[in-house]
Amino acid sequence: MSAIRVENLTKRYGETVALDDVSFEIEEGEFVVVLGISGSGKSTLLRCINGLAAPTEGAVYVQDEPVTSHRNDVSMVFQQHNVIEGMSAYSNALTGALSRADYLESVLRFNDREDKIKALEALETVGLLDEAEQRAGRMSGGQQQRVGIARALVQESDILLADEPVASLDPGSAQTVMGYLRSAAEQRGLTAMISLHQVNLARQFGQRFIGLADGKLVFDGYGDELTLDVIDELYGGIDMEEFLSTGDDKREATQ
Asked: How far apart are CA 53 and CA 69, in angstroms?
């Protein structure tokens, strides 16, 4: 059974075609990086997978069940961290448990010993256990994103999505966050889809790659198949040899 199956997925916003007849399957436990420039359809694809956006045509299946609405069993890490700055890292992580509860149950979740342990374990997974009581608003952007990952882990889903999770971070923080994302997925046996436009990070951390251009699926393969010709198709007009030979963040070139 595949973890995610996308069949002939098309998504339109008015006259704009965000995704155009996209199809692929992802097996359980795969760590997949979705590549493409801004506007290629990466975010729309992830939103269709977790039910935040409905397909115009086609269908998405998670563990063989059709996605017809927002799914709490699919965790999501967003680009803008979305932490509550006035709360501690621990309290932010603990809010991940609320997605597994209805309104009345959620009132009790903050006093549930098992969920408290899960929040601390998630912070340990992302290297922030010693910062558990630190107020999120005083943390760096990279630390805040790691808190966001911890919150997603507390949700205890089998599928983890991350939409441009390092786009706003400096190169060092981006490396750190991607490293924790990959290790968390491996340690917990998660199926992960991470959208990126930084090719150097994708090649370093990705296992499988899906490439989008103008809403179309133009590549689906593994690291040794991600050639300069493929990258040029995804990021046409960029000096990719220079891009790939440096560790510098080239976000401006791909936006």
From this structure: 8
